[in-house]
Amino acid sequence: MESAIQTVVTTFLKSARGKDNLDSKSFQKLVQKQLGGIMEDTNSNSAIKEMQKGLDENNDGKVGFQEYLTLIGYVATSLSESKSGSNASAP
Ligand SMILES: [Ca+2]
């Protein structure tokens, strides 16, 4: 659990390279490299751009840490839904 949170934080910091935000390119790289196995449409640049727009609450064209956490929360939610879905169908 602790290492998972550390990974979430260090992944953002590494991708942002000392800045407070991820620009479009860094965000795209992060999603494709780190979330390709867990999310759909990560090979589509336009889908990632749409995702970024949806996350960009302050409309600065970049993904801040809070906005990034929104994405992590979204991924975690869909993961838990798919897991509980498979539990529901188990005997
Ligand atoms: Ca933003």
Describe this entry's structure for a reader.
The chain is mainly α and 91 residues long. The protein has a domain at 18-78: Recoverin, domain 1 (Orthogonal Bundle). 68% of the residues lie in helices and 4% in strands. It is built from 4 helices and 2 strands, in the order αβααβα. Strands 1-2 form a two-stranded antiparallel sheet. Helix 1 runs antiparallel to helix 2 (24-34) and helix 2 (24-34) packs across helix 3. It is globular, with a radius of gyration of 14 Å. The relative contact order is 0.11. The model has no long low-confidence stretch (mean pLDDT 92). Calcium ion binds next to strand 2. It comes from Kryptolebias marmoratus. InterPro entries: EF-hand-dom_pair, EF_Hand_1_Ca_BS, EF_hand_dom, S-100_dom, S100_Ca-bd_sub. GO terms for molecular function: calcium ion binding; calcium-dependent protein binding; transition metal ion binding.
Q: State the assembly state of the protein chains.
A: single chain
The helix-strand sequence is HEHHEH
Low-confidence stretches: none
Q: Mind telling me the CATH class of the domain at 18-78?
A: Mainly Alpha
Shape: globular
The secondary-structure class comes to mainly alpha
* CATH H-level superfamily title of the domain at 18-78: EF-hand
What proportion strand?
A: under 5%
CATH topology of the domain at 18-78: Recoverin, domain 1
Largest sheet: 2 strands, antiparallel
- The CATH architecture of the domain at 18-78 can be named as Orthogonal Bundle
Number of helices: 4
The rounded distance between the terminal residues' Cα atoms is: 29 Å
Number of strands: 2
Main sheet: strand order: 1-2
User: Which percent bin holds the helix content?
Assistant: 55-70%
Overall average residue pLDDT: 92
The ligands found in this model are: calcium ion
What is the radius of gyration?
14 Å
Keywords: Calcium, Metal-binding
InterPro entries: EF-hand-dom_pair, EF_Hand_1_Ca_BS, EF_hand_dom, S-100_dom, S100_Ca-bd_sub
Domain EF-hand: 43-78
GO molecular function: calcium ion binding; calcium-dependent protein binding; transition metal ion binding
